[in-house]
Amino acid sequence: MAALSPRPQPPLPAIRYKDTQAKAEALVSEALGEYTPKAGLTMRANAVRLLVSMWYCHGSTKFPRGWVMPAMQAFLDLGLDCPNARVWRSYRSDIQDNPGQFLTTNGAPVDLIRQMELDLMGRN
Fold first, then answer.
1. How many Cα atoms are found within 13 Å in the side-chain-facing hemisphere of 39?
2. pLDDT of 102 above 60
3. In sequence order, what DSSP letters do the residues of 1-37 get, joined into one string?
4. Per-residue pLDDT averaged across 101-124, rounded?
5. pLDDT tens for residues 3-39?
6. Contacts with 48 (C-beta within 8 Å, 6 or more apart), sequence order
7. 84: helix, strand or coil
């Protein structure tokens, strides 16, 4: 009986964190151009403006890995009150689950939030 040759090992996946980080930075940069945070708004309103704008640019709330750091950096660069990383992720989760809860937030992009609600209803 002939000896079986060892099974070939599949290649290990490449770690592309730098690529995804660049994508996250580009997304935040693009989103800032759509609905720029404003100095007169609350931290919550500005965070919602950016997150909804990111959804609009990306088409999903499943943002590239590393999105929180460029979002925080953008707020710091603009001199705005900046939520911590946990709050950013919490807001994103809230927007994924129920974007309508932000319709009454002063300064929030109501038109995009309503579009998000329609998008979520279409997936059910």
1. 3
2. yes
3. -PPPPPPPPPPPPPP-HHHHHHHHHHHHHHHHHHS--
4. 88
5. 677 767 657 555 567 788 899 999 999 999 998 899 9
6. 91, 95, 102, 105, 108, 109, 113
7. coil
